[in-house]
Amino acid sequence: MPLQDRIQQVEQRIAAACQRSGRLREDINVIAVTKYVSLETTVSAYKSGLLHLGENRWQDAEEKWVALSGKDRSVPEDVPTWHFIGSLQTNKAKDVVGKFSYIHSLDRLSLAEAIHKKASQLSIIVPCFIQVNVSGEMSKHGMEPEELSGFIDALQAFPSLQPIGLMTMAPYESKPEETRLVFRALRELRDVIQRDSAYGSGIKHLSMGMSNDFDVAIEEGATWIRLGSILVGKEEE
Ligand SMILES: *Cc1c(COP(=O)(O)O)cnc(C)c1O
After folding, report:
1. By the 8 A CB rule, do 107 and 128 touch?
2. Whole-model pTM?
3. Which helix (H) or strand (E) holds 61?
4. From the CA of 137, how far away is ligand 1's center (Å)?
5. DSSP states along 67-93
6. What is the rounded CA–CA span in Å between residue 25 and residue 10?
7. Measured distance CA(196)–CA(4) in Å, rounded
8. CA proximity to 58, closest of 31, 88, 24
9. Domain 3-227, CATH homologous superfamily name and number
């Protein structure tokens, strides 16, 4: 299906989910996850108005980042806003900070320290989402919900990092409705943090919902959805 049609179909579903839940379209931000597609498709996506791009490995993102945002970029437009959405090794933080505007996978203090260190060298502040393993699935990254409040307090030691929200991945379900409780639980965690923690009051955003389940995530309060296959497609290697 042509990209324009995909974008339009996704837009219709976002609008419908907003309508069902009484939310405003402008409160939902879309990240086009380009990890399954070529540089060429990534450029088309950006030129079609998908201004937020997500990647989960620096090795795979590098070519695209250089072409679209590097010093001698080959795509002369304005630059996209890059989101790092994959799990991040501590020693790779320095590759990502300064290139990706947002990091969605903060899940431990050693990583917070590495992000802070590089960001302070660059005199920037990096907005981050704290990844929480709400579903309890063994294979999913992210911290346990019980660890969250202590973690947020500990982040005060790293002022070049700004926690702005929570992120989670729901398990793949053939019936997307079955992901609802995962998304609801993340929203409730966010609400508790906002109520109980002075430092956590800036933690407003919810990065949740992928191709299979974004409608449900929007109904449960997502403010950033991360869409790969359904939006920009999935190309064979
Ligand atoms: C790959 C990926 C996505 C997008 O996946 P789709 O199911 O293709 O939409 C979203 N979030 C994360 C963390 C991912 O790794």
Report:
1. no
2. 0.96
3. helix 58-69
4. 16
5. HHHSTT-SS-SPPPEEEE-S---GGGH
6. 12
7. 44
8. 88
9. Alanine racemase (3.20.20.10)
Task: Show the ligand 1 pocket: residues with CB < 6 angstroms.
Answer: 33, 35, 56, 85-86, 169, 210-212, 226-230
Determine the residue of 55, 183, 226, 227 to mutate for testing ligand 1's pocket, defined as the one with the most ligand atoms within 8 A of the Cβ atom: 226
CA 185 – CA 134 distance, rounded (Å) = 7
Q: Are 88 and 81 in contact (CB under 8 A)?
A: no
Ligand 1, atom 4, lies closest to the CA of 228
| CB 232, CB 37: distance < 8 Å | yes
Please list the ranges in the chain whose pLDDT falls under 50: none
C-beta contacts of 137-142 below 8 A and 24+ residues apart: 137/171, 140/169, 140/171, 141/87, 141/105, 141/107, 142/105, 142/107, 142/167, 142/168, 142/169
211 CA: nearest ligand 1 atom:
9
Residue labelled with tokens 């309508």:
19
What is the total residue count of the chain? 237
Residues forming a β-bridge with 29: 224
What is d(CA 30, CA 11) in angstroms, rounded to the nearest whole number? 10
Residue among 192, 191, 171 nearest 181 (CA): 171
Contact 10, 32 (CB under 8 A): no
